[in-house]
Amino acid sequence: MSGSQPDKQELEEGGSFTPRFDENGLIPVICTDAASGVVLMFAWMNEDALRQSIETGKAWYWSRSRQKLWQKGETSGNTQTIVDMRTDCDQDVVWITVEQGGGAACHTGRKSCFYRRIEANSAEDGSVQLSPIDAERLFNPDDIYRR
Predict the structure, then answer these.
(1) Residue 129 to residues 106, 108, 109, 123, 137: CA-CA distances in angstroms?
(2) Is the confidence at residue 142, as pLDDT, over 80?
(3) 131 HSE (CA, 13 A, CB side)
(4) DSSP state letters, 22-65
(5) Can you give the three-state secondary structure of 80-97, one letter per residue?
(6) Burial class (CB in 10 A: 0-12, 13-18, 19+), 90
(7) Of 110, 21, 102, 32, whose CA–CA distance to 62 is shortest?
(8) Entry pTM
(9) Do 78 and 105 form a contact (C-beta atoms < 8 A)?
């Protein structure tokens, strides 16, 4: 996966996977539910996480806060089995569709990390508010992660 970067034509039209990691060695990953199409989460992979994900068919990520490789569900049991893995036209983003084990992808206990809608406030001050949507907790994170 590493090595010299191909020319634009090869990058956009060729058959070689040459992911373009950022200056920190990371590539963004969008994760969606294979059954519903719902966006479950956004995360990062380094080269090791990407390789592990491809080799095992399970989602592995890089935690920027913990500076650690981790497999989704290793603590919570809410694993992600990869159904499809794609990259965008210039190979600097990865999109995975997964079967979400345990029903919850978010560490807050929700199905998706995207459980709040951004809305303009009805007040005339131009403020913005967040409104919960599909925000039911499927598990209590304090019971799972024991912070």
Answers:
(1) 21, 20, 22, 10, 21
(2) yes
(3) 8
(4) -TTS-EEEEEEETTT--EEEEEEE-HHHHHHHHHHSB-EEEETT
(5) EEEEEEEECCCCCCEEEE
(6) exposed
(7) 21
(8) 0.89
(9) yes
Q: Are 145 and 76 in contact (CB under 8 A)?
A: yes
Q: Look-up: residue for tokens 């090595």?
A: 3
23-145 homologous superfamily: Phosphoribosyl-AMP cyclohydrolase (3.10.20.810)
For residues 95 and 33, the answer to whether their CB atoms sit within 8 Å is: no
85-to-15, 51, 132 alpha-carbon distances in Å? 14, 12, 29
- Tens of pLDDT along 15-57? 999 999 999 999 999 999 999 999 999 999 999 999 999 999 9
What is the C-alpha separation between 83 and 57, in angstroms, rounded? Answer: 8
